[in-house]
Amino acid sequence: INTGVIVDPANKPERRDAFLIYGEQERWELVPTTPIAAVKEADGGLIVLATQGACDAQCRIATDGKGQGAIGYAVSLRRHWPDPVDMDLREYRYCPLAPQDDLIHTTAKRLRRHVMEDLGKPTLKQRAQESPALAYVLGAYVMKLFYAVENVGAMMAGKEKGDPVSFINVMNFAEAGANLQRLHAAGIDQILTQSVGWNLRGHDGMYPTRFPIEPRLGGEKGFRELIALGNGLGYHMNVHDNLLMNVPHAPDWDPDRVIQDLYGEPLIHGFWGGGIEYAGWPFALGEQRLRSMLQQVKDLGIRGMYYMDYMEQPLEVNYHPKHRGPRSAHAKGMVWLLETAKEMYGSVETELGFLPAAVAADFVATAGEQWHMRLFRPQWPISDLLEQKNRVPMFELAMHGLTLMEHRHGLAWRNGMHAVLFGEHPRDEWSARAGVMPVLDDARVANLKRMYDLVLKQFGHLQTLELTRWSAPAENVQETQYEDGTTVTADFEALRLTVNGKDVEKPAGW
After folding, report:
1. Pairing of strands 363-366, 404-407
2. What DSSP designation does 456 have?
3. Do strands 44-52 and 275-279 pair parallel, antiparallel, or not at all (unpaired)?
4. Does 291 have pLDDT greater than 90?
5. 310: left (phi over 0), alpha (psi -120 to 50) or beta
6. How far are the Cα atoms of 60, 116, 119, 450, 500 from residue 52, in angstroms, in the given order?
7. What is the CA radius of gyration of the chain?
8. How far apart, in whole angstroms, are the C-alpha atoms of residue 294 and residue 264?
9. DSSP string for 216-244
């Protein structure tokens, strides 16, 4: 769950629960990203790893209320009797843990072997040699340029005040261009932009329709001018895009591209800036349509790593009579989208760290975060077993140096410390006016430059290295070690960062 959670059955109530790997929409907050679990006692333990058929792997956990517990995997072929079943192999490997083995590190490194040896994922160093787009990103600050959104949906501003639904325009293309020039003048010479809300009706507005480009922001002419300006500054100008979101008021709405639920109805997945949103079935796009959609956006003049939002989302069964498929087909379809985008753009980033997506992509926006755990509902039995303090970076220990991991936790010194500690890649999101995202004022520009210099210029090489050790030697203190021997210690109480035993000077003004 999440990046990994340790459960100590001591002092826990009697509980039983089960959940599917790679997520179920009704409990997506668990973020079960990896097909591996383990148990350890004083005299040893076991690791269980779903090496084939992981989309059907159900993790089961139980405590007896007397200090004992158990965890393991089962095969879940159907949740409902009409479910289609993937006629494929299901394989679980059980690996012994010796008494001296460390539970977290041994489990993480077994997962890393699976990703590299069974799934064939190359290292970031290898990928950067074949992908100029990825090589550029390794030294580039990722910035989401946020333009506009309809004031509707689960996370939009003003709805709690009863404000009417309206188009919130917080930056146009000309203003975005002026801000990029400010950042360039400040000395941030490598940026990958991901324009958010450039499409019709802003962020999440009319998917799957993207064109015409939102005229209230400057239209296609203004967007092309922005792209040309950014490219001329040496930046990689790209977009925040979505190939799986479908709203019924879109001109390109096609019910055959939408997952159908058990009752033959379009499957609702959320309520965002575009209103009620229905889940798309990747393979229903078809090869020709997919490539045409990707090429149409690329023809705007954008370049560099492409961002594909909303993947990997929790897996679904599709009951559509033509595009019927099990959870594994949903996962394979999302991997197909990512692989096609990677082929056409040279590199691809996606939103969440479910393992199929993390293997296909070069960059994941998150592998699970603390705030997900704060959303656990008390009626879920597993909520009584999971404590935020027991969340551990198993995902990072397994995947670091294979997949870039995004840092988006703020622009203070302690945030920079955390980014160096875990070799994370910095990302920020800004607009020209208040209302949705932070405004790119002079203070923010200065902090972005400090983060850029510290995390990318000074310690950017850590991104491509395997993370070999992690520990928390004291309260509010964490330590990591990388494959080249680099040791990073972050004392978040004293706000002190040391690398190889030497203090890293806090930048002036931070």
Report:
1. parallel
2. I
3. unpaired
4. yes
5. left
6. 18, 14, 10, 45, 40
7. 23
8. 30
9. GGTHHHHHHHHHHHHHHTT-EEEEEE-SS
* pLDDT at residue 159, rounded to an integer: 55
Q: One-letter amino acid identity for 222?
A: G
239-289 per-position pLDDT tens digit: 999 999 999 999 999 999 999 999 999 999 889 989 999 999 999 999 999
CB atoms within 10 A of CB 493: 9
Average pLDDT of span 410-439: 96
Helix (H) or strand (E) holding 51: strand 44-52
pTM of the model: 0.96
| Region 31-58 average pLDDT | 96
Q: Which helix (H) or strand (E) holds 480?
A: strand 477-482
Tracing tokens 């998917």 back to the chain, one arrives at 207
Four-CA torsion 377, 383, 387, 393, nearest 10 degrees: -90
CA atoms within 13 A on the CB side of 251: 6
Pairing of the two strands 306-308 and 275-279: unpaired
Torsion on CA atoms 320, 322, 327, 329, rounded to nearest 10 = -160
Q: In sequence order, what DSSP letters do the residues of 339-354 get, joined into one string?
A: HHHHHHHS-EEEEE--
CA 61 from centre of chain: 26
| Strand extents, DSSP E, 125-222 | 141-146, 148-150, 167-169, 191-196
DSSP H/E element including 418: helix 413-421
Task: Report the pLDDT value the prediction gives residue 312, as an integer from 0 to 100.
Answer: 74
